[in-house]
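hey can u run this one w/ magnesium ion bound, need the structure tokens asap thx
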Amino acid sequence: MRVKRYVVNALPEAVSMIKNELGKDAVILNTKEIKVGGFMGMFRKKKMEVIAAIESNPSKPAAKQLPQQQPHAPRMNAAIEQLIQGAQMASTAVLEAPETDKQPPKKEALEREQYIIDEIRDLRQMMVRMASGSSAEAAMTEALGDLKRRLEEQEMDVQWRERLIQTILDKQMEGKTEFTREQVWELASEQIGIWLQPFAGHGISTEARVVHFVGPTGVGKTTTIAKLAAEQTIKQGRKVGFITSDTYRIAAVDQLRTYANILNVPLEVVFSPMDLPKAFGQLTGCELIYMDTAGRNFRSELHVSEVNSLLQSNEPSETVLVLSMTGKTKDMADVAEHFRKYGVSKVLFTKLDETSVYGAIFNLVMCYELYPTYLASGQTVPDDIDLFDIDTYIQLLLGSKSR
Ligand SMILES: Nc1nc2c(ncn2[C@@H]2O[C@H](COP(=O)(O)OP(=O)(O)O)[C@@H](O)[C@H]2O)c(=O)[nH]1
Ligand SMILES: [Mg+2]
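ok here u go:
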């Protein structure tokens, strides 16, 4: 029989040392609290002395026999069993030993037995906690993996994706979270909500008498104007007027004129900024004027500055950049960047019905500090438009929290 003494801080520490050095068949014969070090009897540290033994023909150390990938739990259980065995042996040995001078008295032996039983109970609890912790961690890792994939699919910028994941990991470290997919989704939506909050809920200013709509060709400016005008005239009972400077395409004026006729709204056509004062003069009776502009190659700053010259007015006014969700990310970013330079801060996204990828909204809002006003999701005038709402948007972005 080979016997070895270990001095450790706590029992679990000894268990792994014993298993490595003496193998899985080793048993713990005795444990006791001791004090070591110090100076003249002071500053001594509490330690634990563990005596373990193995039969003379021991099996190989357990750690080497176990495959590398073996999960923790079975090894833990083996360790618990071993400890119980060891403790039983130790306590039986102590109890059955004749009471010679060298043996501890019976009372002490009983106390020691109780001590060992308590230790084992603590150890078992600790191991159960560790085992359940590792399965929760696996669930967390899976949920975070799902979230990462979702955000990638949604084309959320990588820097924001990483920040979001980090925030969730931090929460996990603080122990403030469970590890389910639902919980991870909730944390993600809470954080995205915090980021978007400063930009949401503004809509188009009710103070503005003139609202200009700018943006690339075909994004849906004219259709959007018709939708908003219908809402203002029919539901709010306000007097609305239209101005269009989109004279590049013959059909463009006709398109707005058709809506103007349906809604019974006056329309003025301007060919240059010089025509603007006259047009405003014609619309003095209107509480609200929507101005349609021609879509140009707004990836070029020159065209942006050109349209900007049309937007001058002495009235309280606001300019809304219209972007289609079917546009390419890089093109949308270029347009947003150019218009941002000219002070345009409101944005309206169209054609949400033609995509299932919504990250661009978040990216543009955060990157250029744009205020999302409305989301349009269809060709039907006036129904297919809604005020931007954070919760609805986050729901689109993150999708269902259950698989
Ligand atoms: N699917 C879809 N089509 C839209 C939406 N908004 C506008 N459109 C369509 O996009 C096309 C271009 O719209 P238009 O208003 O003329 O764009 P503009 O050139 O920016 O004025 C038209 O066929 C519209 O019906 C939308 O939210 N969803
Ligand atoms: Mg148009």
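The pocket of magnesium ion (ligand 2) is lined by residues 221-222, 246, 252, 292 (CB under 6 Å). anyway lmk if its weird
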